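Hey, quick one: can you model this chain's 3D structure?
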Amino acid sequence: MTAELNYLRTWIGRTQAEREFVSPRLAQQLAATLDYEDVPHTGCPLPPLWHWAFFPHIVSQSQVGADGHPTRGGFLPPVPLPRRMWAGSRVRFERPLVVGSEVTRTSQILDVAAKEGRTGKLVFVRLRHELEDLEGPLISEEQDVVYRESATTAYTAATGPTAPTDFTWKREIVPDPVLLFRYSADTFNGHRIHYDRTYAHEQEGYPALVVHGPLTATLLIDLVRRSVPGESIASFSFKAVNPLFDRAPFHLYAARAPGSTEVKLWAANSDGVLCVDAEATLTAPAYVLQK
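Sure thing. Here's the predicted structure for all 291 residues.
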């Protein structure tokens, strides 16, 4: 792996700039998927993390791999491991994206590292994304993408770590194939583990459809926004710990000490196992879509 890793590390420092129109229709699709009654219109600021629906990696059908992702290479290094997932992000919000505006995203590969996990070889790619419009910076994000070996055995249910039990706010989510399909469509995410049950089970070893990590993160930040609509979010980070599936409800939690701007967030499956670990920092009032 050393020679391969050295080659993959030649991608460090590569940059890519993209422009995107913040489409009213896509914003409306996201609002519908996340169950808001308000219809975002031109000039409306978008809630935190909705930027993940923009700047998708669009390739022709002939360039899509067996897993539904674009084939390897190009801006991202061609990691020779078949399974890929979004492992986590750290995001700072300067200003929100505005519907109807044009935004530039500049991405840079910060690091490529190999590790040995309990499921085999892992390769982590860390990226930085800077979003800005004509008025200046909007969002700064570091993203972790992990590549894994093929599943050699059936998925074993996670037994830990156990999620915390002290919380301030809580929400139950009942995932279903329609929710997962709609979010995949909103984000132009073709990964088959989110909508193709046979593929998810037979090829990647999962017992059911997998809930998107970014969807869970968005629902966590949404829990905060609904609970304290008079405050906005300055920063957010999340880490995927265990997968969530569409076969059972899961719960979102938020814990905030009185007077604190720090909020601890997590998602747990129906067995109380921690699946997503997150944190948010609150600041000034924000525009709130109505549920």
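One thing worth noting: Residues 213-227 form the longest helix (15 residues).
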